[in-house]
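Reviewers of the previous submission asked for a worked example of the structure-prediction workflow described in the proposal, so we include one complete record here. The input consisted solely of the amino acid sequence. No template or homolog information was supplied to the procedure at any stage.
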Amino acid sequence: MPLRHLLTLAFFAAFSANFVFAQDYQIDRYIPESSSSEVSMCVMQSSSSVRQMTPAVSSSSANLAKDSTNLAASSSSASLVKDTTVIKPSAKVKPNPYNLPDALMPLWNSMSMRQKAGQMIMVFLTSPQFVIENELGGVLITGKHLRSFDNYKERMDKIDSNLKIPLFTALDQEGGIVNRLASFSDNWRHTPSALEMRRMDTTQIRTLAKKIGRALKDIRINMNLAPVLDPSKDHRGSNSFMEESRRSWGPDTSNAYKVRAFVNGMRDNGVISVSKHFPGYDSWTNSDIQIAISASPKEKIEQNISFFKTLSKDIPVTMMSSVHFLRISSRPAVFDGNIVKMARKYSPDMVMLTDDLWGTSLRTWASGKTQIAPRKTYPDKDFKRLVTAIIDAGNDILMISYTSKAKDIINIMMELSDKSSKYKKRIEESAARILKLKYKAGILKL
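From that input alone, the workflow returned the following structure tokens.
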């Protein structure tokens, strides 16, 4: 048979295969889910149809037609499998941008922005109703509360039974002159200072810290605002204010292992430790009552930071200093975002805590003046500037001794978050760190 006839028959065979299979495909594409056997049957039927419609030809033309048919069937079969596959919609998963544990996600997704902002506030304990209504995240306990223990216990009972998210209950129990437990019982009157604990071995320190931690746990305290990691020597080599007051754990990281024993003793009783005051308080003025300034050179500040760095995996909370370090910043450390980042550099989930925002040093800086009005009269615009600067810097927990101002802080944060997604994200970042710590420490049980 001439070659042109063979080619004509081959073309006819290929065309017939495509035509018959196309009919089968138009029917099968509407089947929701085709099994592999159904697809195979469809292909087999199409091939059979081609054989019936193709006349007998020579061996070479038959092979050519067969190859063409197989190629067409193979191509159409692949298209069929692709087009008839049904993609089932997956369940919508809410995002978790802050790496919260799965157990916390239902709580997180149920919280309003105002509730998240409330977690960032720690106030001097006054009215339980105020704490409950504003859904605050923490309270500061002092010797004054413990001297009237029955009243303190009654307040805490009311708060605990009405708050959805348990509080951080914080207290300064450094030892020595900063000894709140002495107000609770004379048995604690002579608790060793940091200077005295530096002279003990680690077993003695941990045993003492466990005993203190147990006493704190018994009176509902879950956060100890200690240890003090501020340097014992200032940049001139003289004893620092913290050394003279016997509050410092030493000049450098050489006592880090002893501090760790203190922290572990607290942790044994579920008490969170707080390192303070980053990047190292070496001023001779008290920032709670006047503007505090340090002229320490950058090298000395970096040396002081090394103590905090060494213990950053052991201590989950850092209190920022209110001192203005002239050589590295134009503002007090707690207002400087770069200094706050330094504190969090070695532990991303580190919770940053301010010192008292009602302290004279911070309010004076926020007002842009060298002196400010009496304690209870402070312009709203200056207070808003103070709070905004604190949030901008990256702090997580805002401590304030003027309790009623907590509501103003929340209102300022809500105003900021309504105007800018940047502030919404900032509030959520801090609230997430706080909730993670409460969950990890066993304070928040789900």
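Residues 3-84 form one domain. We consider this example representative of the routine output the project will generate in years two and three.
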